[in-house]
Specification:
Helices cover 16% and strands 47% of the residues. By secondary structure, the chain is of the alpha+beta class. The strands form two sheets. The protein has a six-stranded antiparallel beta barrel with strand order 1-2-5-8-7-6. A two-stranded antiparallel ribbon has the order 3-4. The chain is globular, with a radius of gyration of 14 Å. The model has no long low-confidence stretch (mean pLDDT 89).
Length: 97
C-alpha cells in the first residue's frame, strides 16, 4: 500500500509536529528542528540550522518559495531553500529573522 498524504500528516503529528504560519497563507503542520551544526571555517564555529519537515503538498498549495516568511511559535523565519525528497515530504531550510 502506498503512503498517502493523510499518512504523512499523521506521522508529522506523531513526531511532535506543530502548526506553523507562512506569510499570507494558511497554517500547516510541520516538525521544527533547530539543531546546532558545525561550520567549516577557521576558527571552527557552530551555527543553528533551522528547518521544517513537512508535506510537499503543503509547500506547493501555499506557494512557499525562497524568502517566504514563516512563523514558528513566537519566532519568524525566512525560507532559504525548499528540498523535496521525492516521497511527498520536504525540508524547508530557513534562517531566523
Amino acid at each position: 500500500m502506498l503512503e498517502t498524504d493523510a499518512d504523512r500528516l499523521a506521522t508529522i503529528k506523531a513526531l511532535d509536529g506543530q502548526l506553523v504560519t507562512p506569510d499570507g497563507g494558511s497554517k500547516f503542520w510541520a516538525v521544527f528542528d533547530a539543531e546546532y551544526v558545525s561550520v567549516l571555517s577557521d576558527p571552527p564555529m557552530e551555527s543553528t540550522s533551522p528547518a521544517l519537515q513537512c508535506r510537499t503538498s503543503d509547500v506547493e498549495s501555499r506557494q512557499i518559495v525562497k524568502d517566504t516568511e514563516i512563523q514558528v511559535g513566537q519566532d519568524l523565519y525566512r525560507v532559504h531553500r525548499h528540498e523535496p525528497d521525492g516521497t511527498g515530504m520536504s525540508v524547508l531550510l530557513m534562517f531566523k529573522q
